[in-house]
Amino acid sequence: MKKKFETFGNYILLEKLASGGMAEVYLAKKIAASGVQKFVAVKRILQQFSESEDFIAMFKDEAKIAINLSHSNVVSIYDFGTEKKQFFIVMEFVEGRNLRQILNRMKRVDKYFSVAQVAHIIRQTAAGLDHAHRCIDPTTGKPLNIIHRDMSPQNVMLGFEGDAKVVDFGIAKAAHQIEATRAGTLKGKFGYMSPEQVEGQTVDSRTDIFALGIMAWEMLANQRLFLANTEINTLRKIRECEVPSLRKINPNIPAELDQIVKKALEKNKVERYQSAGDLQRDLQGFLSRFDPDFSTQDLSVFVKGLFSEEIIQSRKKQIVYAQVTSQRKKIREDLAEKTQVIGTATATHLTDEMSLDHLSFEEISRIKNLDTTTHEYSEAIKKAVGDVDFTDTDMGDNKSRSQQLHIAKRDVKESVKQYRNQTYTNTDSVLAEINQKNSSNATTFTILFSLSFLLAFFAYVNRYHPEFKANFCRSLESYGICPKSLYIPDNLLAIQTGPVGAEITINGKLIGPSPQDYLVQQLPLKIEVSKGGYRSQTQIVDAIPASQRIAINLAKVPTGWLIVKSVGAQIYINGRATQSGQKYPVPANKDILVKVVNPLNGRSKTRRLRVKANQTLPMIIEPPTSGGL
Fold first, then answer.
1. 568 and 533, same structural domain?
2. Long-range CB contacts for residues 447-453, cutoff 8 Å, separation at least 24
3. Which end of the chain is more exposed for a tag (fewer CB within 10 A), N or C?
4. What are the pLDDT digits (tens) for 93-127?
5. Active site residues
6. Distance (Å, rounded) from C-alpha 121 to C-alpha 432?
7. Whether 260 contacts 287, CB under 8 Å
């Protein structure tokens, strides 16, 4: 039995994404012409809140504010209104998870954000907050003074492409005012309040900055900051605002980042960052010095690794959802098929400008057989399009009204003429036979074409891309559809690492960042795995395991960085080639061998040195011209 989807205004609700005490969020798509469609998120306020006049007033005001926000790090709002006596907001659909969901998943699989990843997430979130804090009312030119008031991991969406976006701007204030007096409804959010919020003082944008500091501290320390056994004790801890040093918890956290987070968490808001833009700039500067090669793609690879199975299932659903049409559109398609012209190869579909979706088959049948000069015709059109008199009458001086009625009259008559000019047969058997024949031919052609395409596709994949074939099979393993023996070669080895993104070298050849699927040509394999900030590991594989998978986990080590410059020479650090001026991670407090080779004469220079933890050491080595040093 086919699943029925609810039509809500101009949107088809496809799947419930989340629900809470105040609203429910659906994946939806807009009903649009010409096959154009876009997935959106529809947040529908529950019926009991729509009946509260105070809530309605606040909700409208805040929605008007939120719709002014337009920034890559803020979830956009496209539409706002009421349908079926329920208020709703249409938002950008972010294909990803909120930060709380991601942190929960990481805890289950024993993974952690890296320093660079945390700095990137907080920097992007600060950028979104800064845009909101500085937003100007386009109608008055005055600041809107938007404050989120509910910054927490639940309200930061992290897309699978690595972008962080702030969500729930605008309704946070309304939600807080409605729910604050109800016991327990703010449970879980107390831990992200500022000291001034707890003490009931007037709040401003610096409250959002404090909440963002809490999130940064927790992601770096891998533990909650102010959470206590009761809500009262949680509020007491926030009021006291004793923040442990991050470097005492984890000495590998850079001192510069520790100071940035500490400043965001100052109890006195005068000593805190005065704007989210200042916090964003400091994080950007830190990230450019700490890991200049870090990109959004690095975070994307990590997050996709956490939700790989869910992403595959989501993409499959979206393909199915793309085919879903509204009931109105289905009726129109069915009607167009019934008005096929006998004796021609083409079927005429309803393409008139005026929508007739709300007419029944009986009404359309009556209209197409009416004489347009009769009173019956006029009455039928009135019933179809509303209480408008289409007979020639004196419209007086209301030219705009006259023009609108004239256009409506012309469009309706044109639509009716299109129906009346069709050639119909009264023999149902002939129409049925033609429809059956056309349908049979189309079905046969579709089946043959699909089989040919699938055979060609699988032949190509089997020959040239066995890794893709293996990944496809794994995605279907849980359904019991694809036996491994049919799709996964016996010599395919899936290599995974902790953390994701570590460089894999097999028998001296660089394969790329993990995870990787590798076709084993000969054994044994010498697998080397390395990543900045982690101790490299080498593993010898004499036989492919029965699972055809191998996991190599790296231990964290103190790290420093070298920036070696040498004009025209090839640079090697601990035997690995690197480019001049590139920031290269090295183990801290260990002997490092730097070698530069002059490609013109083959002569080289070597230097041995040590780098302290978190130290960046720049050095310039002239290429050798008359011997080694």
1. no
2. none
3. N
4. 999 999 999 999 999 888 889 999 999 999 999 99
5. 150
6. 61
7. no
Residues 489, 361 within the same domain = no
DSSP 8-state code for residue 500: T
538 neighbors 526 (Cβ within 8 angstroms): yes
Q: Tens digit of pLDDT for each residue in 598-627?
A: 877 788 889 999 998 888 888 888 877 654
**Would you say 496 and 550 are in contact if contact means Cβ atoms under 8 Å apart?**
yes
Judgement on whether residues 213 and 194 belong to the same structural domain of the protein: yes
Q: For 323, which DSSP code?
A: T
What distance in Å separates the CA atoms of residue 449 and residue 442, rounded to the nearest whole number? Answer: 10
Question: Cα separation of 256 and 285, whole Å?
Answer: 10
Report d(CA 414, CA 419) in Å as an integer.
Answer: 9
Residue carrying the six token digits 């401003």:
204
In which residue are the tokens 């956290």 written?
A: 253
State if pTM tops 0.85. no
Are 394 and 263 in a shared domain?
Answer: no
Six-digit token pair at 114? 């890296």
Strand partners, 130: none
Residue 80 · residue 44 · CB < 8 Å: no
Counted domains in the chain: 4
In a domain, 18, yes or no: no
- The token pair that represents 549 in the structure block: 């998978």
